[in-house]
Specification:
- With 75 residues, this protein is an alpha+beta fold.
- It has a domain of 51 residues.
- 13% of the residues lie in helices and 29% in strands.
- It has a three-stranded antiparallel β-sheet, with no helix packed on it.
Length: 75
């Protein structure tokens, strides 16, 4: 786990309470536009991530992955 935190912090500023998703369990289908990812930690709150289609842009190429819009609530 320390290696994952070190790698993530080389790309992003991490703050107390940040959640690092490390992958998808075996047997789970890929994330697609329209999906909702929900993470809950007791006594802290719930974070919901709504997956949306990629935004169109002149430099975007076909087949790129979906984008996410996150919202969180405290318990």
């Amino acid at each position: 786990m320390p290696e994952l935190i070190e790698l993530a912090s080389s790309f992003y500023t991490l703050y107390p309470g940040d959640v690092i998703f490390t992958g998808t369990p075996e047997g789970v289908s890929p994330i697609e536009a329209g999906d909702e990812i929900v993470a809950t930690i007791e006594k802290i709150g719930t974070m919901r991530v709504h997956v949306r289609p990629p935004s169109p842009s002149p430099s975007a190429s076909a087949g790129q992955g979906a984008e996410v819009a996150a919202a969180s609530t405290r318990a």
